[in-house]
Write a structure and sequence with these properties.
The protein is built from four helices and four strands. With 140 residues, the protein is an alpha+beta fold.
Length: 140
């Protein structure tokens, strides 16, 4: 990945190592300690706390680039609704997945009503250039 030097000024590691660590974390959903171990295998001694700080500071731009490179999504979307318990309270988890298994969006809310469903669909379709051909639900 190409990096720009000004954001990385003041760090003791080269921009290539910082960008590689942040890219690993966001691209493969690894933990900070996993990234630390991968870098250690390549001869770079860095703590997981440094990786965490890098991901907090530079992660948003990497995540945006990865989503942009992902390409066009599938034509069939599956929408799931689950009832989950968070700290003893019931919440509804809404999840949209395309035909290839790529998670499109997740929303957790306390209420299950028409407004919640409309909010989820608006958030999901915002910024897309097309709509899916088939929408599969589990009788929401």
């Amino acid at each position: 990945m190409s990096t720009q030097s000004p954001p990385y000024r003041g760090y003791c590691f080269p921009p290539e190592i910082i960008s590689y660590a942040v890219w690993l974390y966001h691209r493969f959903c690894l933990s900070f300690r996993d990234v630390e171990e991968i870098l250690a295998e390549r001869g770079v001694s860095v703590s997981y706390e440094a990786v965490r700080q890098w991901c907090l500071k530079f992660g948003q731009t990497f995540a945006k680039r990865i989503r942009h490179r992902r390409g066009q999504l599938g034509d069939t979307w599956h929408l799931d609704e689950l009832l989950v318990s968070i700290r003893g309270e019931r919440h509804y988890l809404w999840r949209a997945v395309d035909q290839d298994g790529e998670v499109l969006d997740i929303l957790v809310q306390k209420s299950r009503d028409q407004y919640a469903a409309q909010h989820f669909f608006r958030k999901l379709l915002r910024g897309l250039r097309y709509v899916p051909c088939l929408l599969v639900t589990d009788q929401l």
